[in-house]
Design goal:
The chain is an alpha+beta fold. Helices cover 50% and strands 15% of the residues.
């Protein structure tokens, strides 16, 4: 390390003592190459101080007091402003050039803290939600579904419960979705087509059973809703809406405020259904061996926006036995008359 070139061989007088008990003596101080040289006035060297180790004993005060290091007994007293300014400038340059472990630790600590905060903001909620949903028992899901359905009935009316219609609805569910089909519930109003609840409950608008001539339309709605269920777990949707604290409480206690269930029920009755891709939906129609054309025209009477479902109908030019007997379909259409 060398002194700044503009100060090399700068000289000034000062007072110096070599031990704590010795008398101060006037000396000549020279700012040299990497050292501070202390000499007698007759130019006999008394001491050499390494500039990187020079320590200011009284920062900001005059006369300035210096020592060769933090533990030395030697003390140099200077009053010459130019020499003081030169030593301070050289010390600042040296200080900036040397490594600062504490500063690095502070920067790394700040970066780590920021990373933790960002993780808390962006990663933790999703991770907590996934963990909670993954460990949620089926019995708890069924409880949640029943509670949400109860809240929905306070807003949309009691479920339609004509006995013959309920039997027909159960038969249609199994014919469309298989033996482990979801429980279907028809509400008299307000449901936007269909909605899936935790515990594998599908809520339907009565218009789906009353306004169409064939059960294939309702079957299409069931397939679309079941595909949405594959896209997003209804319990995850509930907890996502309820928020981080409600999710944490569900994970730790298995409980959730009824207010969250009421709000979720109200959203389900007014929300717009999530779109399902034509490719995925056509695959479901093909698997169930059900025509997609009636469902497509129910969504859009002109067929313009649902043309892929019409042209891709997997049952086109194929025969299949009726989805359900006419008598059962009639009973299902009267499910809300009981």
């Amino acid at each position: 390390m060398t002194a700044l070139s503009e100060y090399q061989r700068l000289e000034a007088t000062g007072l110096w003592r070599d031990t704590e008990d010795s008398q101060r003596r006037e000396v000549l101080v020279s700012l040299g190459d990497a050292t501070l040289v202390i000499s007698t006035l007759s130019d006999t060297a008394l001491s050499h101080w390494s500039l990187p180790a020079v320590h200011r004993l009284n920062p900001g005060k005059t006369p300035a007091l210096y020592a060769p290091d933090t533990e030395a007994e030697e003390v140099l007293e200077l009053t010459e402003p130019e020499m003081i300014a030169a030593i301070e400038k050289v010390r600042n340059v040296i200080d900036r050039a040397r490594p600062h472990p504490g500063r690095l630790r502070l920067i790394l600590g700040g970066a780590a803290s920021l990373a933790i905060v960002l993780a808390g903001l962006f990663w933790l909620p999703g991770a907590l939600l996934r963990q909670t949903v993954s460990v949620l028992p089926e019995a708890k899901r069924m409880d949640l579904g029943r509670d949400i359905l109860s809240e929905m009935t306070t807003l949309a009316g009691l479920p339609c419960n004509d006995a013959a219609g309920v039997r027909a609805l159960t038969g249609l569910a199994r014919a469309t979705l298989g033996a482990d089909a979801a429980r279907l519930v028809v509400l008299p109003s307000s449901v936007p087509g269909s909605a899936h609840l935790p515990g594998d409950i599908i809520v339907l608008n009565r218009a789906l059973v009353e306004d169409y001539e064939t059960p294939e339309v309702l079957a299409g709605y069931l397939l679309a809703e079941d595909e949405r269920h594959r896209m997003q777990d209804p319990a995850a949707r509930l907890l996502q809406e309820a928020g981080l604290m409600a999710t944490f409480r569900m994970l730790t206690t298995g409980e959730i405020d009824m207010g969250h269930l009421h709000d979720h029920a109200a959203r389900l009755l007014t929300r717009t259904t999530i779109p399902v891709s034509d490719e995925a939906l056509l695959a479901r129609f093909a698997e169930a061996e059900i025509s997609s054309e009636p469902y497509a025209f129910a969504l859009d009477m002109s067929g313009e926006t649902t043309l892929p479902l019409i042209e891709g109908d997997p049952m086109r030019a194929r025969l299949r036995s009726p989805l359900m007997p006419d008598a059962s379909w009639v009973a299902l259409q009267q499910i809300c008359d009981g």
